Amino acid sequence: DGPLVGSEPDEPVKDDETLPPADGAAPRPSIPAEPASVGGTAPAADAEAVADADVASVTDGRSARAELARQLPLGEVPGGTEFGTFVHAVLEDVDFAADDLRGALRELTDEQLAWRRTPIGDPAVLADGLALAIETPLGPLAGGRRLRDVARADRLNELDFELPLDPRLTGTATVAGIVELFRDHLPSSDPLAGYADELAASGIGGELRGYLTGSIDLVLRTTGDHGPRYLVADHKTNRLGGYDGPLTAADYTPTAMAEAMMRGHYPLQALLYQVALHRYLRWRVPDYDPRTALGGALYLFLRGMAGPDTPLVDGQPCGVFASEPPPALVVATSDLLDGGAR
């Protein structure tokens, strides 16, 4: 058998729109400006279809159903992998703390359009929607901060990594071994606790060989009780609702995002990103302690991030999926990939 992990292409495309459909979901129709591979799962929810549990958990004082049924600023912009790459390029270059954030985003959008033939709809709508995403609170994991509050000195863009997986040098690592680590370390209360079974049933198996390569969209440095904490952040442009109606905040509740995360195997991606960050910090930060320095991962589903008044469900803003695996899981996975027996 050949290697199960290979190098990225020289010009990687951000593959943000390829989630498999939820069980029983109807096939997605073909629509202009969005290729057939564009992600989309369960039908978009309306005010009467919002899950009672999510409605009961909305923590502000306004009408829960009305808040979750609100349409989203980026709900109707085009999608696809090229669109995801376009948005990543804009967010990589923008200064989140710019005085004229919308103007900066519009300028970068125009620069990208000058050499990319990417359908994005109205550039002003995209720039305004991205500004609102940057102004959306990121929830408790980030101490309530927004991307808007992150200075350039506290962010690291596109952290590239390459992890060798050569059984002759590091020993044998397998997906089954990672499955067992998920089972051992994720508590049953974790929203991704069922992911171990998803990964075990995925058909991905055998030895991991070659080079595990990737690029972390964003590393954020925040302040913790015991010094700096570092979070992985990943931008996603996935459309989680269907095409039979407008996207609403109800399509991006924590429950909806957790289901999408597991279908897309994003928990595995997030874990490997944190392994790469763990190794980077171990090399770069004096007196590094993963128990206090590793802050978890934020998956930023940009279409669901609607600005400062984005609805909260159980204290978490819609559109922002927060994952805080035990640091012991990250360290154990790093050891496994480095030849630790499992």
Description:
With 342 residues, this protein is α+β, with helices and mostly antiparallel strands. Helices cover 33% and strands 15% of the residues. The chain has 12 helices and 7 strands. The strands form 2 sheets. Strands 1-2-3-4-7 form a 5-stranded mixed sheet. A two-stranded antiparallel ribbon has the order 5-6. A hairpin with a 2-residue loop joins strand 5 and strand 6. Mean pLDDT is 82; it is low at 1-11 and 24-49.
Shape: globular
Secondary-structure content class = alpha+beta
Low-confidence stretches: 1-11, 24-49
- Give the fraction of residues assigned to helices: 25-40%
Q: So how many helices? A: 12
Radius of gyration over C-alpha positions, nearest whole angstrom: 20 Å
Distance linking N and C termini: 21 Å
**What is the number of E strands?**
7
How much strand content do the residues show? 15-25%
Question: Summary?
Answer:
The chain contains twelve helices and seven strands.
What is the topological layout?
Layout: H1 52-57, H2 64-68, H3 81-93, H4 101-113, H5 123-134, E1 155-165, H6 167-170, H7 175-185, H8 195-200, E2 210-224, E3 227-236, H9 254-263, H10 266-284, H11 290-293, E4 294-301, E5 312-313, E6 316-317, E7 320-323, H12 327-337
Parallel strand pairs: 3-4
Antiparallel strand pairs: 1-2, 2-3, 4-7, 5-6
Helix pairs in contact: 3-4, 4-5, 7-12, 10-12
